[in-house]
Amino acid sequence: MEEKTLQTLEYPKILGHIAAYASFSPTAEKAAALRPTADLSEAQRFQAETREAVQLLITHPDLTIGGARDVREQVDLASHAGVLTPVDLLDVKSTLIAGRTLARTFESLNEPYPRLAELAAQMPLPIGLIDAISRAISDRGELLDSASPNLAIIRRDLRVVHERLLTKMQRMVSDSNITQYLQEKLVTQRDGRYVLPLRADFKGRLRGIVHDQSASGATLFVEPLSVVEMNNEYRELQLAERDEERRILLALSGEVGAFSHEIVALIDIIAEIDLVLAKAKYAEEIEALEPTLLQFPKKGHAISGGNLHPGSVIRLYGARHPLLDPETVVPVDVELDPDTFAIVITGPNTGGKTVTLKTVGLLSLMAQSGLHIPAGSGSEISVFEKIFADIGDEQSIEQSLSTFSGHITNIIRLLGQADRRSLVILDELGAGTDPQEGAALARALLTHLLERSITTLVTTHHPELKAFAHGTPGVTNASVEFDLESLQPTYHLTIGLPGRSNALAIAERLGMPESIVNGARSEINPADLRAEDLLEEIHRQRDLARQARTEAELTRQEIENLRSDLVGRLEQIEDERREILDHARQEAKARVEDLEQELAALRGALARARQPLDALDAVETRVADLEQEYEEPVERLPLEDEDVILDRPVRLGDKVRLRSLNTKGVVTSLGENELEVQVGNLRVRTRLSEVEAVGNDAGADPGKVLRETVQENQGGESVPASFNAPSPGIELDLRGQRADDALDQLERYLDAAYLAGLPFVRIIHGKGTGKLRQAVREALAAHPHIRSYQPGGASEGGDGVTVAKLLTN
Question: Dihedral (C-alpha) 208, 211, 212, 213: value to the nearest 10 degrees?
Answer without folding.
Answer: 10
